Amino acid sequence: MAKTKGADSAGEDILRLPFEEALKKLEAIVEAMEAQDLPLESLLARYQEGTALAQLCQAKLNEAELKIRQLEKNAKGEINVKPAQNLEEE
Questions:
Q1: Those residues with Cβ within 8 angstroms of residue 69's Cβ, 6 or more apart along the chain or in another chain
Q2: 74 vs 29, which has greater pLDDT?
Q3: Which has more confidence, 1 or 88?
Q4: Residue 80 forms beta bridges with which residues?
Q5: In terms of Cα–Cα distance, which of 57, 76, 79 is closest to 68?
Q6: Residue-range domain boundaries for the chain
């Protein structure tokens, strides 16, 4: 069971990473997988971590896009925030 707790802890650590750090880790994993002749178990572990990082990065990008889309300028050039529910109607 210790292995499961370690995996859960590693997953929680990944979720706390800022976007830029997650992207750098993902790029490093891809480079290592492409450049090195790694054993299958190591490749699978890196693939799993890379998948989690890719999902995290995509979620953070989606969140940022939503925040950006919520901002709108009115006729006076003032920035207003649209309610999120209006975005679904567009």
A1: 82, 87
A2: 29
A3: 88
A4: 72
A5: 79
A6: 2-89
Q: Sorting pLDDT into bands at 50, 70 and 90, what band is 1? A: very low
Within its chain, how far is the Cα of 6 from the centroid? 20
The structure tokens listed for 70 are 């919520």
**Helix, strand, coil shares of the chain as percentages rounded to 5?**
75, 5, 20
Question: Could you tell me if 26 and 57 are in contact, meaning their C-beta atoms sit under 8 angstroms apart?
Answer: yes
Q: Which two tokens stand for residue 48?
A: 């799993």
In whole angstroms, give the CA distance from residue 42 to residue 56: 21
User: Which residue has better confidence, 49 or 85?
Assistant: 49
